[in-house]
Amino acid sequence: MSNTSYLFYQNRTPRPFLDYGEGIYLFDENGKRYIDGSSGAMVSNIGHSNPRVLTKIKAQMDRATFGYRLHFRTHPSEDLAAKTVSLMPDGLDRVFFVSGGSEAVESSVKLARQYALTQGQTNRHKVISRFPSYHGCTLGALDLTGYDPLRDPFASMMQGMPKIAAPATYLDRDNLTEDQRGLKYAELLRDKILELGAETVLAFIMEPVGGASTGALVAPDSYYARIREICNEFGVLLIYDEVMTGAGRTGKFLAAEHWGITPDIVAMSKGFGAGYAPLGAIVAGADLVDPVLDAGGFLHGFTYAGNPMACAAGLAVLEEMEEQNIVENAALMGEVLMVQLRRLMARYPFIGDVRGKGLLTAFEFVSDRDTMDPLPSNLNAYDRLVELCYERGLIIYSRRTRGGTSGDHFLLAPPLIITQDQIAEMMAILREALDAFATEAGLALWEDAA
Ligand code: PLP
Description:
Strand content: 15-25%
Bound molecules: pyridoxal-5'-phosphate
CATH class of the largest domain: Alpha Beta
């Protein structure tokens, strides 16, 4: 086996060859086993190599792998669209398929824009998003992303879409209740719309539970309804980026359900194809889509969108989720995991916050729980702990918290099929890695009973 690689991705971190996956586990070619504690990049929601899903994909592959959507309707795409609509809040009944999350975000924004044009609102073109946030890496989606290291090199190529602060209330040191804080952060949207001129604002896009760039940030309950109200007040479309949170990750099919919100457009990917196919979708109401189609059509589309192979995979994934009660398991196991993560705070003073919803959970390192100052950047904690876990057979996912320049958070987001025993197994490895990190970084530990 040659060590030369002609491939390149983000960096040169050497990794072993993947051999196979099974459930929550991945095995490399040396026979080493890894718990996939982040479902890859929060993708493999139903676990790896599910035989029932593979059989269904194979059955479609035997008939046709590709049929271009402008030449044929296909049953997998129609059936997946119908299934998807059945899982949405009332009123979200039109589906447009894509192959990934950035494509879903781009598509949402372009649909919003074309809808505004049909309403004669030609001035509406600004899309407000939050900082920090992650909405994708293509230039349009990147412009909505609030994560400096990824944006900075390309800033001059983008128009600089407006941002408001993400509701990181765990950093606030005020006398407000959580509900009051939620409202305070929501008002930032209203202020921004007024500042920009409501007639220029097309949409507001948010991750209902934060993903990579905030580390599973959950806003106070009051935030969600108030944001919906503000969007209604100004005719600003509300886009929920559920690329990471959708398809059961947070213990409901959509995270929006936790707060009873119906966004105008939902973007999904990751768990929607669950690693069985590059797949994503946007879902909107006919009231938004029909005017666009009546006015001549949606001027947008990707070659692979709606291909029967990916749609058969997506349909098989959703059926498996339903048949095995996987979303319910995510809710239950999310609670188990959260309790265990909170317990870590009794031993590791440098864990400053634990947060999340369902099986989208995270913990954040700080140098001081009172000030919530991050650890010194040169410790590269976000990188080191991931490596220490990896060596021990646990895959977790990390990023810099405070806009990408400092702070360290770690996402634990295992496949939604995980069991209580497997969570215990994962936590044991995590503790070993945290101990090793503390020793290496010269950080104090507390003796805890757990
Ligand atoms: N939106 C969110 C919330 C995401 O988490 C991601 C990926 O991490 C994306 C969009 C972009 O998805 P993709 O990497 O599939 O283009």
